[in-house]
């Protein structure tokens, strides 16, 4: 098994966000083998992406039996209801249902 290139994956994500363009995933396919690899990428991206401040978090998983994952969200991208996302620099606009709560 090859060593994951954590820095290359993180750099691709940061550049995609800065340029508002999707990253070519093919060269990165298979780089991350474990949740620890993904969290290492997340830590690098968190430290470099503007506006990512721990305080807003997204947690969940693909099913109730799956291990939950957690990721910080950029403060500028978290809106109270009713929300207006028209100023957010989306590259691709899709609908994803999210339920949030304030603790």
Structure characterization notes:
This protein is α+β, with helices and mostly antiparallel strands and 103 residues long. Helix content is 27%, strand content 15%. The protein has helices at residues 6-19, 35-48, and strands at 52-60, 69-74. A two-stranded antiparallel sheet has the order 1-2. A hairpin with an 8-residue loop joins β1 and β2. α1 (6-19) packs across α2. The radius of gyration is 15 Å and the shape is globular. It starts with 5 loop residues before the first helix and ends in a 29-residue tail after the last strand. The model has no long low-confidence stretch (mean pLDDT 80).
Name the helix and strand elements from N-terminus to C-terminus, one letter apiece: HHEE
The chain-level mean pLDDT equals 80
Strand numbers in spatial order across the main sheet: 1-2
Distance between the termini: 42 Å
SSE class: alpha+beta
Share of helical residues: 25-40%
**Beta-strand percentage?**
5-15%
Low-confidence stretches: none
- For the secondary structure, the number of strands is 2
């Amino acid at each position: 098994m090859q060593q994951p290139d954590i820095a290359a994956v993180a750099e691709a994500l940061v550049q995609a966000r800065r340029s508002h363009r999707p990253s070519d995933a093919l060269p990165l396919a298979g780089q991350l083998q474990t949740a620890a690899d993904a969290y290492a990428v997340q830590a690098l991206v968190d430290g470099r992406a503007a506006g990512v401040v721990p305080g807003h978090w997204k947690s969940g998983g693909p099913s109730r039996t799956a291990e939950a994952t957690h990721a910080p969200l950029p403060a500028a991208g978290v809106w109270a209801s009713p929300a207006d996302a028209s100023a957010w620099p989306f590259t691709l606009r899709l609908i994803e249902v999210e339920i949030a709560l304030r603790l």
